[in-house]
Design brief:
Elements lengths: L26 E12 L2 H9 L7 H14 L1 H4 L8 E11 L3 E12 L4 H19 L7 E11 L6 E2 L2
Antiparallel strand pairs: 1-3, 1-4, 2-3, 4-5
Helix pairs in contact: 2-4
């Protein structure tokens, strides 16, 4: 199998490994991910009105996403600890029954922040669920995906 076709976190014997990035150049890197929380219109209205007993759902989910991005290496076994230079987590309604979460993460370093952006979006979505489960247990988290990444040897990538 050609080197570029191998999984980077698996060695030639098939054992899991952390990729050695020491020879890579430091570059500006950025990644954007999204997730959706689908719920009843009444639940979304409560979020927007601030009518939930646990408090401001959007503010707490935003902070949870930021904290998660900074701790991704503690959650995903082969991720490098990174000096993150910026995290923005935005939550906005889409229609009457869903909340869109977008996480944008930046660093200047030897490896990208795709996992940090995906983790931020996922944990923000989980936080929305946690804060709203008392009024609706049937919410769904959907569409967690990477939207774009910039920097590094592979350059720019955007989802279709």
């Amino acid at each position: 199998m050609a080197e570029e076709q191998r999984l980077s976190h698996v060695d030639e014997r098939g054992a899991a490994r952390m990729v050695d990035v020491s020879a890579k150049d430091d570059t500006e890197r950025e990644a954007v991910a999204e997730a959706y929380v689908v719920m009843k219109p009444e639940t979304l209205a409560l979020i927007q009105e601030g009518g939930l007993p646990k408090g401001d759902v959007l503010a707490v989910a935003r902070v949870a996403g930021i904290m998660a991005a900074k701790r991704t290496h503690e959650l995903i076994p082969m991720c490098h600890p990174l000096a993150i230079t910026g995290v923005v987590v935005d939550l906005s309604p889409r229609g009457t029954d869903r909340l869109r979460i977008e996480a944008r993460v930046k660093t200047s370093g030897k490896t990208g922040v795709e996992m940090e952006a995906l983790t931020a979006a996922s944990v923000a979505a989980l936080t929305v669920y946690d804060m709203c489960k008392a009024v609706e247990k049937g919410m769904r988290i959907e569409g967690v995906r990477l939207l774009e990444k910039r920097g590094g040897k592979s350059g720019e990538w955007r989802a279709e």
